[in-house]
Amino acid sequence: MGTREQIVDAANRLFYEQGYEPTSFASIAEVVGISRGNFYYHFRTKDEILEAVIQARLASTREMLACWHEGAASPLERVRRFVEIVISNREDIENYGCPVGTLTNELAKLDHPLRAQAVGVFEIFRNWLREQFEALGRSADADDLALHVLTFSQGVATLLNAFGDRDYVQREVNRLNAWLTEQFSDTSHVASRGP
Amino acid sequence: MGTREQIVDAANRLFYEQGYEPTSFASIAEVVGISRGNFYYHFRTKDEILEAVIQARLASTREMLACWHEGAASPLERVRRFVEIVISNREDIENYGCPVGTLTNELAKLDHPLRAQAVGVFEIFRNWLREQFEALGRSADADDLALHVLTFSQGVATLLNAFGDRDYVQREVNRLNAWLTEQFSDTSHVASRGP
DNA sequence: GTCTATAGCTGGATAGAC
DNA sequence: GTCTATCCAGCTATAGAC
């Protein structure tokens, strides 16, 4: 892996774990194992690193969703798979929150020019969810349903980060799965209630 | 208003708008109109200001909820009033997100010792909501319902901050109000659908 | 209580040797 | 491409005059 790629990888992780502003060149350089000066051969400013990190996240998100298309059978199962993210990524979310929501908010507070690009990751999820609901025959309110599922994921991520309560997460996942079942009269999945 | 109180007020606002880490003593001093040096008569460290800010938020939250008890008639109306916060605070949320969720997450990423105290604001809302649901006869799952309403508020706040879409907020508020109606067979409120 | 002055450090960013 | 050395601005925090 090239140095530039290593820098983007390390920055991606550190921006998530510590936040963009508190992450210094020194800490990224330490992880990668290069000197601070060497940075400026690959990136001229800190913002350029952020832009590369966002581009990497956009690409990996698209890739992940494309993978799901090959893996999961029906649109409804794909949506359920998205819902399960809060469980499969439980530990990271407990410690650092959602990578998408926390970055967009930090950039909002900083009034950062790359804020809109960071929101792009949300838009990828939103459009992908909308497509699933359209495939389920709900073209009229597909975007509304997509935003509702995103609302769930952001709410759960924030409260999991605050309280660290796994049972709560499972209850909310069950609740949303029950809602999905209700919306589409799906009998292939039975949401188990209670912890 | 005393200088110390003015400092806490200004810090409270700036920590919300810019975040804790990016807010410098200089910017707080500029707002209050005092010199940087004068700070250290009132607070020894930046963390001490944060602690005072959190204490102030705990107090003002308790005060607000106490006010609602006098104002709103029924427990259900009080819950609906909480739900409406995302509308009445729309502009701030659009620009800076939820003051509670964004601070707890920032402190989580910083691994800050005051993280638990900041979560205390969430706990006040959680306990208060739980009490309302208990008063509505749902003592068995009152805490679960309380967390669900909190999940809604955090999800909506994060996505309103990202997308800035007011119609989306109204749709989600309508959806949660319909859910409340369904839960308690309430006929005093009719959720209007659509924009 | 409030000020000025300043210490001591760390941040992002640059210059130039190799 | 990578390094060391360095600049300068900004930060938290302190000392001491008023």
Would you kindly provide a written description of the structure presented here, covering whatever features stand out?
- The structure is a homodimer of 195-residue chains.
- By secondary structure, chain A is mainly α.
- Chain A has eleven helices and no strands.
- In chain A, helix 4 packs parallel to helix 9.
- The longest helix of chain A is centred in the first third of the chain and has 26 residues.
- In chain A, 37% of the residues are buried.
- The mean pLDDT of chain A is 95.
- At the A-B interface, helix 8, helix 10 and helix 11 of A face helix 8, helix 10 and helix 11 of B.
- Chain A binds a DNA duplex (18 and 18 nucleotides) through helix 3.
